Amino acid sequence: xxxxxxxxxxxxxxxxxxxxxxSTTEMYYKPEQQQLQxxxxxxxxxxxxxxxxxxxxxxxxxxxxxxxxxxxxxFGAYFKSHFLVYGLPETTxxxxxxxxxxxxxxxxxxxxxRLPKQEVLEWSNxxxxxxxxxxxxxxxxxxxxxKKSFLHTKDQNIAxxxx
Length: 163
Fold this sequence. Notes:
Blueprint: H1 2-15, E1 22-30, E2 35-43, H2 44-55, H3 68-82, E3 83-86, E4 93-102, E5 105-113, E6 120-125, E7 136-143, E8 146-152, E9 158-162
Parallel strand pairs: 1-7
Antiparallel strand pairs: 1-2, 2-5, 3-6, 4-5, 6-9, 7-8
């Protein structure tokens, strides 16, 4: 009887969907170029949801429902609000470089320019936290001859690396 009950439950368990909310970010610290380059990979449908909330308007990506200039401006504003590097001089600026769609992901490219040599790099990545409380953002920092990964969650979204 117990085996029969388990067999009845198996199809129910198999159809239960569990969605994972994960983004990955590659950070490349280039002291000789005075740059911190970023490549953020997010699921396109999740990013559309976050941008729609951020803009208070429907935003669809791939295919886009807004002109490229409008989306680039929105992406830049989203970056400035959700990826922060602390302790930078005013001369350092964030530049949104561009985006591309690859299968079900959006790849976003940005850089912090005129970045002086750092002793400590401290940042927070709150991408998608406003719409997905279970969101996790994995950030991998690559510096010459070394690589280290950090996990950002809603409760722990600040990371630090000492050179």
